[in-house]
Structures are given as C-alpha cells and as structure tokens.
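This part of the workshop introduces the protein records we will be handling. To make this concrete, we reproduce a full record directly below:
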Amino acid sequence: MLHQKEIRFARNYRQQPPLVPHSIDQYQIDLRANRCPSCHDWTVADVHRAPTPSMTHYLDREGNQMDTIAGTRWCCKQCHVPEADTPELVDNTFKPSN
C-alpha cells in the first residue's frame, strides 16, 4: 500500500484536480487496465485509507449514475499528476486564487 506524505501540496485554483502524493511511474493505464481504482474506488477506498473520486467520476455521458468509474474518467493521469517540488521551466506570473 502506498502512503501519502505528511504535508500535501495546496491546490492553486478552485477546480484544480487533486495532485497525486505518491509515485505513479509504473502505473499502466490503458483500455483494459487501470491500477488507480484498486485503491481509490468507493468500494475499497476505506480499506486503503485513500480518497475516493468525486461522484462525477461515476456518471456516464448522459448523467446516469454508475457503480464503476465511467470510461470518460478512466485515464486518471490526464488530469491528476504527481506532486513534485521542481523549479519552473519558464518564467511564470501565475498567482494562486484566494
């Protein structure tokens, strides 16, 4: 089981997807496999002490609630990236929202 760091990075704007506090270098995500739900799906998250995806992740294109993560939300790494304290690659004037 992977554990979170003691201190989490803050979100910089209201709708920012949460950052991943552990390595995902070896995670395979394709049409058939996704390791993220093995800890984060609502059915097992309490056992792994992992946050669950929002309910929007369980809605199909028509807004119907599903018991499994929707195919439209299957590629977690499209929105969620690992936390990393790295230098900026280019000058940046972005200011976090209040």
Observations:
- The chain has two helices and no strands.
